[in-house]
Amino acid sequence: MAERLQDTGLYQGLETEKIFAAVIVAALADAPVETSEVAALLEERDRRLFFEILFEESQEPSWEEAESCVEALHRRKLEHELASLQRDIEGNPAGGAMRELLLRKQELMKRLGSVG
Fold this sequence. Notes:
Mean pLDDT: 91
Low-confidence stretches: none
Radius of gyration: 18 Å
Helix content: over 70%
Largest sheet: none
């Protein structure tokens, strides 16, 4: 999961981006993930949030729940790309550029429809 998140960068732009980055670094090391080592990599604000998340009472995490979260992050990324693309289209670029933007929009809509 850590490799997948690192490769896709789905966590980038989130409020918890620095926490994800620290956990991914720790998870990709050839040793068990130590919360104190992860916390040491974080600034105070992120460290507090990390411990809040860590000690939050919830049900036992599952692989399915993790996959669902990654899917939601993927959907979020596609939605942001689509919004950016729409702004570019609204800028009314000249002929060929508009055609490329519309094709890209169609492709993104198709990918968005296949996620989750």
